[in-house]
Amino acid sequence: MAGPVPIAKSLKDIYTEDAIPGQTTRWETLLKEFKSNYGALPDFVSRSPGRVNIIGEHIDYSLYSVLPMAITADVILAVKVIDDSQAPEGCYKIKVSNIQASKFPAHEFDIPYDSVDIDAKVHEWTNYFKSGLRGALELLRKKKGADYKPKSMEILMDGTVPAGGGLSSSAAFVSASALAVMYANGEHAVDKTALTELAIVSERAVGVNSGGMDQSASVFSIRGSALFVSFVPSLVARPVYFPKTSPELSFVIAQSFVTSNKQVTGPVCYNLRVVECSIAASYLHAILNKTSTPLPADAGPLGLSLHGVQDTYFKDSKLSLEEQLRELISLTKSTFSKEEGYTREEIATALGISVGALDKRYTSTFPIRAEKFKLRQRALHVYSEALRVLQFLSLLESPSSHLSGSDTSAFNQKLGDLMNETQDSCRDVYECSCPEIDQLCAIARKAGSYGSRLTGAGWGGCSVHLVPADKVDAIREAWEKEYYSKMDVTEEQKDGAVVVSKPGSGSAVFVVE
Ligand code: NG1
Ligand code: MG
Hints:
Bound molecules: 2-acetamido-2-deoxy-1-O-phosphono-alpha-D-galactopyranose, magnesium ion
Strand order of the largest sheet: 1-15-2-3-6-4-5
């Protein structure tokens, strides 16, 4: 799985057969538009896909393993290296344009050799490119020396992952951008792990304190398989295959058309959850180990993670990981009795620090708006979700002990049950669903889905459904009748609302000859 990002020779190396005709037209348009914008063909195209998360929601930033897969929708960036003559002294030139020019206007930047300026407070589409650029340059400087002068580039982007839709358009864009910058600067064998790690850090520059699931799925995925991604002790991604079942299984992704933009909602949604989980980790650690010494920093976004609590508390334990997680669920319940949440004062006392120090540690980099922190609920979700991922994985990896006879409905339903439990936990415990997603899930289950849940950050966006292949049409009809027909959306939006998705391939570079 590790190794360099593949160099594709044809679109067949990237897409499944059924996607080729549509993609051929799209790529031809990209090259043609590039030529008409900039006067010559690009040197290469870098590509990174979006992803759907099958199970393991909101636990990557607590450093628990997740199980996503790449989808066909992606970001493609056509790139040409140009000389620096158009840039002022001490700068290089970056020209970025988008196929959807009216929605995403073109920009030109003269960037000083030594730093890339990103204003995370201004929500601007090119920030994602810049954050990939910044991350890639850090890596390039490590390799080529601190005074390395980056190349000037012309770029045209085409993205088909819906923004704010829970399918990880941002990670696809950041990964494709970082890959483009590396390749343009002469790195033709870009290491997948290094690219993923830099994309994870880069995305934080855009104002989201993200985990590492999306970037891993975007870079590492292999066509035909889902991906099991672990973050500790180091980032490892490996393919996981679904067994042959009868009825056959399909993954259906359904858009809610409720948009949740993390740059805007971060202080009360995503970034707040990251902070709540980190505080819960420190609090639990202090109580369980009767110490106010901070948990040893691991690689969590805030330096401390709920996974770190498990590692420390069960250091020499003989219990299996599943048993440890069950134990942590009960310890969480007994430690955090307050359903209504904890105030800053209560937390600071438990951690043995001042409220000022608490704010500095947790809420200064990414702003947060909260009176109380629901530590009990957040930790309960994380530990129970981490357990569900392990259960899901063990079903997939030892299917024979669960499959009996030619009808595997019972096995399929076990997978689905775990996804349904995730949805319940996201809705009631982690509070990251929304009524529209709940409704899409309820409609799908009634029409025959085994498992239905939100995917990605939630608060809107997309839902994912594990469905018997022969029920896909019935579910689609039920959504149309009971959900989409009541929404104020265009025909075109409706046409793209429901996608049956096959696991797609990850990042690649396509050299234009
Ligand atoms: P989406 O929905 O793609 O923005 C976000 C995070 C993930 C993960 C999920 C929830 C980013 C870039 N991605 O995904 O790391 O935490 O939410 O499981 O913020
Ligand atoms: Mg995102």
